[in-house]
Amino acid sequence: MQNALKLNNGVEIPILGFGTFQITDPKEAEESVTNAINAGYRHIDTAQSYLNEEAVGKGIQRADVAREELFVTTKIWIENTTYEGVLASFQRSLDRLQLDYVDLLLLHQPYNDVYGAYRAMEELQEAGKVRAIGLSNFAVDRAVDLTLFNKTVPQVDQIEVNPFQQQADTIPALKEEGIQPEAWAPFAEGKNDLFHNSVLTSIADKYNKSVGQVVIRWLVEQEVVVLAKTTKPERLQENLDVFDFQLSDEDKKQIATLNIGESQFFSHSDPEQIKSLASRKLDV
Predict the structure, then answer these.
(1) CA-CA distance, 121 to 58, in Å (whole number)?
(2) pLDDT tens string 174-196
(3) The domain made up of 4-278 is a member of CATH 3.40.50.300
(4) Domains of the chain: which residue ranges?
(5) What distances in angstroms separate CA 134 from CA 39, 81, 129, 158, 251, one per listed residue?
(6) Can you give the pTM of this predicted structure?
(7) Which residues contact 47 (CB under 8 A, 6 or more apart)?
(8) Which residues are catalytic?
(9) Please, are residues 238 and 211 in contact by the beta-carbon 8 Å criterion?
(10) CA distances to 31, 152, 194 from 9, in Å
């Protein structure tokens, strides 16, 4: 698989993925997925909580690409994070996606019965319904804890990584445990005026690239899987065009100065945030 990384179970994951978070309009989600695949993306990321699995599935079906060429991820939401909840809700996700299997299944948040849920995911993997299993938004200690009390080392941990939350300690710690880091919100959803940041624009101008391309390249060079979202067709191709330049050590030092070292969205250890997330019922 071109521009792919090998997970701890031998499955290859494309290093560039198309994220579908907040693409809630069914028609737009379907068209965006089809356009992304036609532009060259082979990695599509969705989740139960995005409420767009059905549209994503339709977009996949519309694209003229064989299923085995695609890498499709979905995630189990908190209310389904139990042994029984995973088995029941995963089948509903498969039905919405119109797929016989997914390539990667993640626990979306580190709450509820993650141990029982993970055992169900291990069973789905053994049954061939899932090629790889993993986590999302788990701190390294939580990932290690889960590993110690289950059979399978998670293949992936999807975490927030961007120039303002660089996860400089977390990324190597996950790799040390054999877990592949994957970045959500690589552009921080434009927070702190990222796309006009003077450090990033200066580097982008040097290589005749966009700020978005510089951020993606910065992650690729760390061997972190990148999930970039856009609904603009011209940006789809641009975000893939990051393999013809290389950042210098000085570039990387400059980007390191942007690190604030905290989430640009919310804290997963904040009790009120946990209560808010856990109260969100999807009924999916």
Answers:
(1) 25
(2) 999 999 999 999 999 999 999 99
(3) no
(4) 4-278
(5) 27, 13, 14, 8, 32
(6) 0.97
(7) 21, 53, 74, 75, 77, 106, 108
(8) 50
(9) no
(10) 33, 9, 36
